[in-house]
Design goal:
By secondary structure, the protein is α+β, with helices and mostly antiparallel strands. The protein has 11 helices and 4 strands; from the N terminus they run βαβαββααααααααα. Helix 8 (180-186) crosses helix 9. The longest helix is centred in the middle third of the chain and has 24 residues, at 119-142. It starts with a strand and ends with a helix.
């Protein structure tokens, strides 16, 4: 049996940071199929292994623990696998970076697809997206990160904060390539972190596998179609 089972749609989006951490620590995991995901999320909350509205859901088979919500899952994996600093400030900063990443995904999909992108909405949002990039950049710089070295919280090795930040921005700007120059201009240290994390063998393997399985998809559905439409026009 695999160490974990991940219930998440066959796209990167909120599943990819979780996959990245699992790959980084050398864990084995299986991905539930669409029917199993749909059945799990549609069940009565009282009968779900963890009451939840939607994936991601992660099952830790060895510990007999089931968790939902990307931030909770990443915090759990980081603590279990020693990817969170001991200092209380840096533990809190790890949680902040994870929460910020969840917020970026929420905003990039206009509140999980509650609305669709239009040229007017995208033009109004562009400064906010760049501000998000500078928030990550300023955070990393406060802890000594540079374009070619260092990690988000000044640790000696990559932690869950680095994996989450790098996978957020690297995956987004690879799948939506017109955003890559914006990242490189606005947050060069984060762009450098993306490159260093992506160069790790486990991450290279994950990217190759994900690209083969998911193609160019990022968040999928009508919201991705509307996002690509405004990016092509900009």
């Amino acid at each position: 049996m695999s160490d974990y089972t991940l219930y998440y749609w066959p796209i990167p989006f909120r599943g990819q940071p979780i996959r990245s951490v699992l790959a980084h620590v050398g864990a084995s995991w299986q991905e539930a199929d669409f029917e199993a995901i749909d059945a799990l999320k549609s069940g009565p909350p009282a009968e779900q292994p963890i009451p939840h509205m939607a994936p991601p859901v992660l099952v830790d088979h060895g510990a007999d623990i089931t968790l939902a919500q990307m931030p909770a899952i990443l915090t759990y994996l980081g603590g279990k696998h020693g990817l969170v600093p001991d200092a209380s400030e840096k533990r809190a900063m790890t949680d902040k970076i994870i929460a910020d990443s969840n917020d970026v995904l929420y905003e990039m999909t206009l509140y999980n697809g509650a609305q669709m992108w239009t040229d007017k909405k995208w033009k109004a949002f562009e400064p906010r997206l760049e501000r998000w990039m500078t928030i990550y950049e300023a955070t990393g710089r406060r802890f000594g990160i540079e374009t070619d070295r260092g990690f988000m919280l000044g640790t000696e090795t990559a932690g869950v904060a680095d994996l989450t930040a790098a996978v957020l921005w690297d995956t987004m700007t690879r799948k939506l390539p017109s955003l890559r120059p914006v990242l490189e201009r606005t947050a060069p240290c984060i762009a450098g972190l993306c490159a260093r994390i992506a160069a790790m063998p486990q991450q290279q393997d994950l990217v190759a596998q994900s690209d083969a399985e998911y193609g160019d998809l990022w968040c999928a559905g009508q919201i991705e179609a509307s996002l690509r439409g405004v990016l092509e026009d900009s």
